[in-house]
Design brief:
- The chain has helices at 3-13, 18-24, and strands spanning 28-31, 37-40.
- By secondary structure, it is α+β, with helices and mostly antiparallel strands.
- It has one domain (3-40).
- The chain has a two-stranded antiparallel sheet.
């Protein structure tokens, strides 16, 4: 799944996008408007600088 497709799906579906993202096994990192970082599909954890 292309990055643009994932981004568009997340914007359109909001929180309902997670089942779709989990089914693709693609590494995804999304940031909420509140700054919360959400990942799925093996995206690596953020490391402190």
């Amino acid at each position: 799944m292309a990055a643009n497709t994932v981004t568009t799906a997340a914007i359109v579906r909001g929180e309902r996008v997670w089942p779709l993202l989990r089914s693709t096994d693609a590494p995804v990192r999304l940031v909420t408007v509140d700054g919360e970082v959400l990942t799925v599909g093996g995206w690596p954890e953020d490391r402190a600088a």
